[in-house]
Design brief:
Aldehyde Oxidoreductase, domain 4; Alpha-Beta Plaits; six-stranded mixed β-sheet; about 20% strand; globular
């Protein structure tokens, strides 16, 4: 006799692992609703967007929804806030949980007042019958058991979604007027202040005899509670932040003066970075391959074009350094963190500190966002580690700007090679895309040992983990957006993962999409130029997706694309000392997310100045038009900074770009004018907008520079030096 166990229904988004209504919603007697989500607020407005979804489904005013900051004690576990997935995954969970709750409350109201369910309307949180108010959510909540599994959409009442509105975010006024809402502002009674001292690089070692001498001197400084060391994990505690800063600087200077560090030259040669990427030990995987073999198509091509593209390492460049607070209880640990993955952080803290995950409670608070993996998780470990020496007092650790730039994970350097074959009619017969890069992820919570900097530096150290790539089903890492959106008969995409970790790297906004789209869309322009075709028309030959075609054509319309050569001539006729150019690019983020087309207008003299960006995007059903537009615009401005200015500086021993002087970013007076248009369609599910512009913006700028100068710059950032280098290379061809 055999028995079978029914598999649970697969639910969408965050519901699949957090299946009960009560995990998402709490109804209060005053009619308000507490919304719980595992996604965290990092400035992108996700809590406001989720509140709008709940309000829409519950027929409540959004002011009645209290979106609660994520906590491991209360919130559903939604892993990491990343990948432009929050509206897509948490949004659908909140939508269905709210829809199910509304159905249950409506049924309860009908039963209590002996009326038919179908005769009840819900208006502003009130259950109405023939114009009469029966009750509200608050009147019924005491009798409702919401520990029920959310039903799939097909078993819930159908809802026609009205166009999303854009009510003002309630947190913005407080931010504008400097309210103390950030983690860096948090002060707890009896709090001690911690600072960390880092080695020059991951492989450095410290002279023990010199350490003992210097440590004893620093221990005597005013306000210092103690100086602590485990291997190269070094920190101190003081009564005030000023005392902590002064003490750690004294410690740093003394160790340098006494030549206490042994510093191996393990970092790559910055002048040979592309060669280092391509010649390192590699793990090669096939990302995509067509049925028709590329080798066969290559033999049929009458000519083959190829080009190489690259970017260097990138810093997150957060406005404020990372910060955390920690306090040990008799039975566990409390942590306040701006981590983007509080449950993953809890797991790794428990591993590192040899306690059970249930003994760790992490409360998320807003900090300086980074849209990637910065030092937020690492500083949480630092605070917890130092708090063990604080006799139960809370400890606040704030990294320095130097710490943040030198030790937060960098966005990996990338090198991309592209080849395409053309037939006698100048049609593309094969496309080859190769990527060389380290993996794009070392976030906590995904390995058998902790992915926390302090753990790697300790004497009985946990191993330094190689950066990995997410599965392609989740969008990939270095190979993200390497598969072109165009229809080519023969296609091959290979990813060559660099199996070394001389510097910490991890997720940076958009992951590999920034460089892959820059390369692929630049190469599409090169193919169009080589065949004498308009770049827009050339793309449309191979783009089959109607939603992709729609954003591309609308962006071209907005930017007056057919008149770009005439506008260039008119600009030159004015006698201006700048060259004017316009470039276009397109991508669908991860090939499954938001569609985005972007046109950039530039003027080039000694430097490239981006004057205007035209963005057209399709993010499916738009929950919050203002929020989506802000995300698209913010991503484009950050991509502009990366593309024109940013690259980490380092020598063979350490990172050198540890301040704003050595790592310039886009300033307010350089920010281009940006227009955003959303092509909304309620028939398509909502997807995220935060990373959709990253790649298209980089490529559109590169293509605009070519239109302005007639010179192709294939390596970011597009600095004056890179332009001169490209001109010199063009002269030698």
């Amino acid at each position: 006799m055999s028995t079978s166990i029914d598999k649970p229904t697969v639910l969408p988004g965050g519901l699949n692992t957090n299946r009960q209504i009560a995990q998402w919603l709490q109804f209060l007697p005053d009619g308000r609703v507490r919304l719980l989500s595992g996604k965290v607020e990092i400035g992108q407005g996700i809590l406001h967007a989720l509140a709008q979804i709940a309000a829409q489904e519950l027929a409540l005013d959004v002011s009645c929804i209290d979106a609660v900051a994520a906590s491991t004690a209360l919130s559903p576990n939604e892993a990491v806030t990343s990948g432009s997935l929050s509206v897509q995954d948490s949004g659908i969970a909140v939508r269905l949980a709210s829809r199910h709750a509304r159905m249950l409350f409506t049924q309860a109201a009908a039963a209590q007042y002996a009326v038919q369910v179908q005769d009840i309307q819900v208006l502003n949180g009130q259950f109405m019958h023939q114009g009469r108010v029966l009750c509200g959510y608050g009147d019924l909540c005491h009798a409702m058991d919401l520990h029920l599994e959310v039903l799939p959409a097909e078993r819930l009442p159908s809802v026609t979604l009205a166009p999303g509105s854009s009510p003002v975010r309630p947190d913005l006024v407080r931010k504008f007027f400097g309210a103390a809402d950030y983690l860096q502002d948090l002060e707890l009674p009896g709090m001690l202040h911690g600072r960390m001292l880092r080695p020059p690089n991951l492989q450095a070692r410290l002279n023990d005899d010199i350490w003992l001498q210097v440590c004893g001197q620093v221990q005597q400084l005013p306000g210092v509670q103690g100086v602590y060391r485990d291997g190269c994990q070094i920190g101190l505690l003081a009564q005030t932040e000023v005392q902590a800063v002064q003490a750690v600087e004294s410690l740093r200077q003394a160790l340098v003066e006494e030549a206490a560090w042994f510093i191996p030259s393990e970092l790559p040669d910055a002048t040979q970075l592309n060669a280092w990427l391509r010649n390192s030990p590699l793990q090669t995987t096939t990302v995509a391959s067509s049925t028709k073999a590329v080798d066969v198509a290559r033999a049929q091509a009458v000519r083959t074009l190829q080009a190489d593209y690259a970017r260097g390492y990138l810093h997150h460049g957060s406005m404020s350094p990372s910060c955390a607070l920690a306090q040990w209880r008799v039975d566990g640990l409390d942590v306040w963190s701006h981590s983007q993955g509080i449950f993953n952080l809890r797991r790794d803290l428990a591993l590192a500190l040899a306690i059970a995950p249930e003994q760790v409670t992490i409360q998320h608070m807003q900090g300086a966002g980074c849209y990637g993996h910065n030092g937020a998780d690492d500083v949480a470990f630092d605070a917890a580690w130092l708090a063990r020496f604080a006799s139960g007092a809370p400890v606040r650790v704030l990294w320095s700007r130097h710490d943040e730039m030198a030790w937060s994970p960098l966005g990996p350097a990338m090198s991309v090679g592209l080849q395409a074959g053309l037939d006698a009619q100048d049609r593309v017969v094969f496309w080859q895309h190769d990527i060389w890069s380290q993996g794009h992820g070392t976030r906590p919570g995904r390995n058998a040992t902790p992915a926390l900097l302090g753990c790697w530096l300790q004497h009985a150290e946990f191993p330094i983990l190689l950066a990995e790539n997410a599965a392609m089903s989740a969008g990939g890492g270095s190979e993200r957006n390497a598969v072109p959106p165009y229809q080519f008969d023969a296609l091959q995409v290979l990813n060559h993962r660099v199996m070394q970790m001389p510097m910490r790297v991890s997720a940076l906004r958009g992951l590999g999409a920034h460089t892959n789209v820059f390369a692929a869309e630049s190469f599409m322009d090169e193919l169009a130029h080589a065949t004498g075709q308009d770049p827009l028309a050339f793309r449309l030959q191979y783009l089959q997706d109607p939603r992709g075609r729609a954003v591309l054509e609308q962006a071209a319309t907005q930017a007056q694309w057919p008149h770009r050569d005439a506008r260039q001539q008119a600009h030159a006729a004015t006698g201006a000392d700048t060259a004017w150019g316009q470039g276009l690019a397109y991508a669908r983020y991860k090939n499954t997310g938001a569609y985005c087309a972007l046109v950039a207008e530039v003027e080039v003299a000694e430097q490239v100045r981006v004057k205007r960006l035209y963005i057209v995007a399709d993010v499916g059903y738009v929950v919050d038009a203002d929020g989506a537009s802000n995300q698209l615009e913010g991503g484009a401005i950050q991509a502009t900074s990366w593309t024109l200015l940013e690259a980490a500086k380092f020598d063979r021993s350490q990172v050198l770009s540890v301040d704003w002087e050595n790592y310039p970013i886009l300033r307010f007076n350089d920010v281009p004018e940006v227009s955003v248009e959303l092509l909304s369609d309620a028939q398509h599910p909502s997807v995220g907008a935060g990373e959709a512009t990253i790649g298209p913006c980089a490529a559109a700028i590169g293509n605009a520079v070519f239109h302005a100068l007639g010179v192709r710059v294939r390596e970011m950032p597009i600095t004056p030096e890179q332009i001169v280098k490209a001109m010199d290379q063009a002269d030698t061809v």
